[in-house]
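Dear colleague,

As promised, here are the two records you asked about, laid out in our usual form so they can be pasted straight into your sheet.

NAME FIELD: protein one
SEQUENCE, THEN STRUCTURE:
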Amino acid sequence: DKWNPAVIALMLYAAALLADLFQWTTGVTLNAIGEVKFTTKVVMVRGILNFAIAIPLLYVIGFNAVPIGYVAASALTGPFLLHRLGKGTIRRTVRGIGWTMIPIPVALVLGKVSLLVPVNIVLKTFVSAAVVCVAYALTVWFIAPTDTRQILMQWMQRLLKTKPHVSLSPTSISEPASI
């Protein structure tokens, strides 16, 4: 129970991680095409915004203000990076990966709800982790594009593949089994 207040901060950081990944990838791309000065300015503004949002909120809501500042600064500066790559970049990026933003909040909300189950803390931990994993996996499965689901299905088939079944019929006994 003493760690429960930190769960919200961890969930916020987890939610921000995907956006952060794309922002840093976009920043590296901009650096590679000679936009180092612009990228540096955006990164500096992002850092300043992070502190400017988090520090005043610290007095109001406590340590959870730090991840809130981080998420807000990322949300405010990310579009500038994408826009610099050219007209339509934001639309093309969101169209292609927008669906990946849905499973995280669904899993987080259901995981938070599962913490309300009145069981001991050890069992609660495992139940909550299981709920988050299953909710995330099912949400991805149901909303992912068809090609992504096909890739996931092929991966699962390879992962779960067992040795071929050997028949015990009279004709197969005389021939060597192929394994």
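NAME FIELD: protein two
SEQUENCE, THEN STRUCTURE:
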Amino acid sequence: DEWDCINMIIACVFLIIFGFSVYEVYPFCKKKTRLKWYKKKSVVAMILIGVTALLYFICCIQAYITKISYHNASNNSAAIKVYVLLLLLPQLTYFILFTLIFYTWCILAHTFSKKIFAIKRKLKIILSSLYIFVWIMLIIVYICVAVSPSNYVFKIAALLWAIMLSIISIIIAIYSSFAN
């Protein structure tokens, strides 16, 4: 039907975006020189965009699988949980991309500060700690959903995940609007 066609078109678009990001990043990764591609923020941003597109491609395929299992009246609860848990993963890559942009902006905003190296070091520690915290929270959400047979825990966990990332992003945005 129309939904399947639209879903597959969107999946193809995400696959094209992933392919383009691989095409653009590959030359940086294959060089034999001492090019530290992971220190190039533009390369990391392209990798994050590619990973996000790949995750959304997988989500589109899982949406189709979920629809098929729903119409076949099989155990669709598990398929729906897998689908929604897959939808949580691109939020993580978006969050990392957002903080990468924030880091770049913050360094630019503090370029003329005498304490620029201390600010960079402190910001890297804060963002690294934030990444570890977010990964731990994602693992906790996945474990809670996997262990609990109740759909209530599943709904609350997904809601708390989205709220947590939103609050952290809002705090970062507020800081960046007042930073000198």
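A couple of things worth noting about protein two: The two ends are 54 Å apart (CA to CA). Residues 76-109 form the longest helix (34 residues).

Best,
R.
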